[in-house]
Specification:
Blueprint (H helix, E strand, L loop, with lengths): L3 H23 L21 E4 L2 E4 L6 E5 L12 H17 L4 E4 L9 H11 L2 E3 L1 E3 L13 H13 L11 E5 L7 H17 L3 E4 L7 H10 L7 E4 L7 H9 L3 E4 L14 H13 L6 E3 L8 H6 L6 H12 L4 H16 L3
Parallel strand pairs: 3-4, 4-5, 6-7, 7-8, 8-9, 9-10, 10-11
Antiparallel strand pairs: 1-2
Helix pairs in contact: 1-4, 2-3, 4-5
Amino acid sequence: MTTRREFLIRTTTAGVLAAAHFHIAHASNADANIGGPEVGPKVARSGVVQTVLGPIDASKLGFTLTHEHVGSGSEKIFSSRAGSVADAVDKLKEARDAGIDTVVDVTTFDIERDIRYREEISRKSGMRIVAATGQHMFAPESYDARTLEEITEFFIREIEQGIEDTDIKAGVIKVAARSDIMTRTEEKVFKAAAGASKATGVPIETHSNSRRRAGEKQAEIFDAEGVSPARVSLGHSDDTDDMNYLIGLAKRGYTLGMDHTFWGMAPGATLPWQKRADCIKQLVDAGFVDQIFLSNDWVHGDVEREKVNPDGMLFTIRKTIPYLRQIGVSQQQIHAITVENPKRFFSRS
């Protein structure tokens, strides 16, 4: 049964896509300048990463969390937008103080993304934020009525021209499939992501059901569409300890998003967080340190998720990394995973 939230999301999606398609045909190619020591003209170039405050050299990304949600309609649980902004800024400042430099926010338009909100909290907190185009979890029904070309153009518009009638641009494409067997619409969205990535040089992150080895189906589509595996990260890969599956994808060149470690703390969890981290160590030992991401899939304002993981974005800093050091992952390897890998991956090709 469709929930009220899913209904509202799906019924607004058609209008958003229609408006986006109109703007694609009529938008100007002009780019605006913004202030600040790190940013210049909002024109993406090879070797740079697009943030909500404009493009920066990839070398300035620093320690990066690659799969987070700094707000996905959750602002509404606060008494006011100002209260939501203040809370997000406090949490992002805490993360900055802990050593995190950049957060990749994979929140897309279909879950009430507010791009000005992200711009504001980035400016006020000093945290670099990379915004996403694409699709979140449930492919909106309106995508059924859209052609592959229209969806591809929508993604490209948010990368090249701007999001929500702004000149704030996406720096990553996020797409999702719920299981190992994709719907026709999910396949169409993945093909659109592939086309947009090839057209713009922007990489792709996915939601995958690793318990059902769903990354293999996703990789099959990307391979068929001619996307380099080096430009794709398969998210939530640490929901399984099937090393044959994980190493098989790594051998094909895909990056593995190990961003659900905290779920090993949930009541009744069958895969403890330490076991999930053990899989990271096994990947490092197998020679794939350059194909691993760490993150937390944190959702600002998600009370239930914070009950499981009160550390939020800091779980990686406070628990995952100390444990990895304890079991023999070197500081050099941790630096590669948290700094060098994102710098290479998110740099526009």
